[in-house]
Amino acid sequence: MTIFQEKFSTGQVIKAAGISNATLQSWMKRDVISGEREDKIEGGGSPGRYRSFGFHTLMEIAVAKAMIDAGVKDLSNAFKAARGFAYTGTEQTELYPERNPSLPFSNRGKLLGRTLLAAADDKSHVAFWQSGADALADIRQALGQPEGFAMVFINEVFDRVMASLNHHPEEVLEAAYGADTNA
Question: Which of 26, 48, 130, 146 could form a disulfide linkage to 113, CB 3.0–4.6 angstroms apart?
Fold first, then answer.
């Protein structure tokens, strides 16, 4: 069973995301957590029915919390940015490696870098940053040239979530992207 097939308890989600149970319940009542696709939140709603969350939903919650911590003031905008990261990916191009939903960009082959998530108002952008490269121009253009924006280093969020779930980040990435044959 891969991490994408696992179901996580409320306790695991609040620990991985760094939030309280009251915060999670508040967000669920406000209906800001989407739990899209095969990741619908199951259970809950009455005593004795424990909720379970899929991996993408867990990452949506953890990334939204990171966006709030980075300065996104509007809860719905934080979750909109988190959903964009958690439920969509990108194909590999000449400049960027592939990125699967809820995961940092692949670091296989020659393109080694970090995954950034930036947001300004209701716009967000997942960027690939390599040491020595200027990711800010790409981010500002994608966000509509704002004066400022909030940004999260997704690799750190991912590593923290994996550690809290007792998974090794590199093993999860290798299972998703395959072994690096160019190392």
Answer: 130
